[in-house]
Amino acid sequence: MSIDSSQPDAADEANGVDIPTEPVSRGIEVIPKEYFAAFVLTTCCFALWGFANDITNPLVKVFKEVFQISNTQSSLVQFAFYGGYFTMALPAAYFIRKFSYKGAIMVGFALYAAGALLSIPASLNQNFWIFIAGFYVLTFGLAFLETSCNPYILAMGPPETATQRLNLAQAFNPIGSLTGMVIATTVIAPNLQVGEFRSNMESKAPAAVAYVEEDYPDGLPNFAEEFGTLDDAVGKGLANMQVTDPEAFQTMQLHDLAVVRTPYVVIAIVVLCFLVLFAVTKMPTFASEHPDAPMTEIIGRLLSKPHYREGVVAQAFYVGAQITCWTFIIHYGMELVSLSLAEAQTWNIAAMVIFLTSRFVCTFLLKYISPGRLLAALAAAAIAFTAGAIFLEGKTGLTCLVLISACMSLMFPTIYGIALKDLPAEEAKLGSAGLIMAIVGGALLPLLQGKFIDELGVRNSFYLPMICFIAIAIFGVRTFTRFERTEASAA
Fold first, then answer.
1. Using CA atoms in the order 371, 373, 375, 379, what is the torsion angle rounded to 10 degrees?
2. Is domain 33-195+252-285+293-490 classified as CATH 1.20.1250.20?
């Protein structure tokens, strides 16, 4: 079985990763039949790292309450999670050069499982820092997976359809993300005793709620901005419980951390099963897996190419924007719209459903619209929706925040494809590591946004992702006005 693009035959296949930035030609296979099974198996990895990403996002809020720490401190979850990508992407690229894509994927699975299993001692010892170490090790594994799977997918077929092929594989990433969100909503959130504590505080304050509804017709959000939020009250109540009844607080903490631990243990088992499956399955190899040029020489060549340099910067801004929007949608819903954790997570799930749907739509649109133009248009729309999240009240602002996901769906694989365009295979492999290292934006920007929330409030913190989308829009415009136009002129 093969999947064809809908556009005449292109030129001969190049040795490297030659990714066109114009709509692809009719009749060129996206997934040749000889690579179909390997493509399917490798694409499963995209869902597995999506699961890890999005079951972790809600834990920023959970850890804030369970461990009684600040927004800045709880954002260390994302700092450790995405910092692991930065730490391990280059070693992963070196491993691929030395061995193979398949070997790197197997190492990724082993590290993924090891990090997930650290949730066991972390929960039993009620230790936030062991959780942080676990997330760090887990993302060592994700760095190996992403550094190997992305260029592996690009190599599985004609270079003319490489961007389409990667967008198709990446379309399964949000399926894993959505699964992680659903488990966070249906397994973790309803079983947290800290959630029951919040509900009890709500039920004990009917007079306050009635006062808000009578004197503040726009409801709790405006009242909260002026006088503080229910979230503030819950935090103070938990802090008081920690002092006045430490035994009860510790029991609640132990229970909630056990709830958090369970899905990580399950996913560790699933990942180990995939490790065994890859070990016994014959996967394709490519001559380009064994380049001879020194890494320093390749890095120098990469840095001399503006579309690659700018692509790495754009990718860092994109990942930072994505993680801030998806992590702090929970804070937005709970603090500005007075939703429960489960209700806020439902909006996060809606964002992921929109993201998933839009990913398939954008993959189709790439047949007719060049990547640079589509990227610039969606970044502009994301800027508008972010402004709505900042300036509009209540659920209208929250809806704008959710709709940003429709714009983000295209960005990661398309920036990736543009950055690696026309690179020889040995450069593409190391270039892939640079783009995965750019995921460090997901470590730094949430930490900065957590600080903004502590100092300026949730609403004003979304100026940060707006700046990110402006940078991505500039990259998109430069792509279709400079890089794509230069290619067309050369042709």
1. 180
2. yes
